[in-house]
Amino acid sequence: MRNTDLQEVFIRFLDGKASPEEVDFLIEQFRTQGGHAELRAIIRRQVESDGDIPDSVREAWEPILEETYQAIRSEIFQECRSNEIEMPGIATYRLRWWNYGIAVAIILSIAFSILVFYQPKRIFPDETPVVQHHDIAPGGNKAILTLAKGAQIVLDSVKTGIVSTQGNTGIVKLDNGLLAYKKSAKADGEVLFNTVTTPKGGEYQVVLSDGTKIWLNAASSVRFPNEFRGNSRHVDITGEAYFEVAKNENMPFSVSVNGLTVWVLGTHFNVMAYRDEPISKVTLLEGSLKVQQGDHEVLLRPGQQAQAGGNGYLRKIMDVDLHGVMAWKNDQFWFNDDSIETVMRLLSRWYDVRVEIRGNIPQHFGGYISRNIYVSKVFEALKATNYLNYEIQDSTIIVSP
Q1: What is the pLDDT of residues 227-245, one digit of tens each?
Q2: If we measure between CA atoms, which residue out of 5, 15, 260, 298 comes closest to residue 156?
Q3: Residue 203's pLDDT is what?
């Protein structure tokens, strides 16, 4: 279900017009990882516009929302404790349903808008910034499947169930939006290659025929066969992707991107290799990897990263911040002493906007903030550093000192 459909059901629910099936669906979405972030973003928007939830719906939602409230509060507490700062004003706040709108507004504005900067100190906004009239919503589950003969399927609009058949493999869109390739027992059909492409402002998850899981970030793609045969498995990607490779010692798995080849038997790793980024990065979370570029290669252990540049160099980085590497998959932006140009490239891909930087902004930024908020929220937090100003003009954002 798309974000817009989910929001329509939620609004009908608030108006008391949702069917019993729709109510059950909403509650189930809160219990699943996929719908959880979408619903929390929808509730945030509802709170911003109305500031309250009708009495008639609170009883049904109380156990779920109380659990969510406690989980968010725990996250904030851990973040504050690990960074040796005081807990914000909600430290002793108890949720009361007649103040639910206020509580959610405070909790979500903190949980989704915390941003850390090296200069100045960490910011906890006292109130949620006002959404601008020409604001831009965050990205979501969006992708296009290109079949072997060129036909294209828009995955975010196609219904769940069988999407297509390629040779002996069925292509299925599951209830959580995931695309899965399920091969039959036969192995005599033609091997066909498909491509899943995410636009700017999109992300998607694919399960290949061998069980390998791939998460695609915005403006990325993966090309793969409908089924693997022989003594190896290979895929090609662009942009950024996270892999959980199904183990098969008899069929090594490899990934090609930007002149790099990553060799693996079974492991978890992330590849970031956008063409507009100066450095490509392969980061290992679990297992072992060999990264090869031309005649050069490096072997990685968990927590290490291979970096490759356009001039042909390849080096290994020890003790990488894995939380920062995987922030995008966990619905966060994570800046690590990044220049304004790097930050703007990242925001441009996720919000599908054009960014113009007018003037010199030499400061570097570091910290984290949710990817599930409107673009103005991110820029208000950046503006709070007193190092930049911004203006939203349709799908263009102008940034200046």
Answers
A1: 898 889 999 999 999 999 9
A2: 5
A3: 94
Angle, CA 276 vertex, CA 281 and CA 273 arms, to 5°: 25
| φ/ψ (deg, to 5) at 186 | -70, 150
Residues of the chain with CATH 2.60.120.1440: 145-324
- Residue intervals in the chain for CATH 3.55.50.30: 333-400
- pLDDT tens for 83-113 read 444 433 333 223 333 233 433 433 333 333 3
Q: What parts of the chain have a pLDDT lower than 70? A: 1-7, 10-16, 18, 20, 23-134, 185-188
Report the DSSP beta bridge partners of residue 213: 207, 244
Of 368, 363, 361, 372, which is closest to residue 399 (Cα–Cα)?
361
Amino acid at the residue 88: P
Extract the tokens encoding 108: 């979500």
Task: Please tell us whether the domain made up of 145-324 is placed in CATH 2.60.120.1440.
Answer: yes
Please say whether the structural domain 333-400 has been given the CATH code 3.55.50.30. Answer: yes
For the chain, give the secondary structure using H, E and C: CCHHHHHHHHHHHHCCCCCHHHHHHHHHHHHCHHHHHHHHHHHHHHHHHHCCCCHHHHHHHHHHHHHHHHHHHHHHHHHHHHCCCCCCCCCCCCCCHHHHHHHHHHHHHHHHHCECCCCCCCECCCCCCCCCCCCCCCCEECCEEECCCCCEEECCCCCCEEEEEECCEEEEECCCCCEEEEECCCCCCCCCEEEEECCCCEEEEEECCCCCEEEECCCCEEEEECCCCCCCEEEEEEEEEEEECCCCCCCCEEEEECCEEEEECCCEEEEEECCCCCEEEEEEEECCEEEEECCEEEEECCCCEEEEECCCCEEEECCCCHHHHCCHHHCEEEEEEECHHHHHHHHHHHHCCEEEECCCCCCCEEEEEECCCCHHHHHHHHHCCCCCEEEEECCEEEEEC
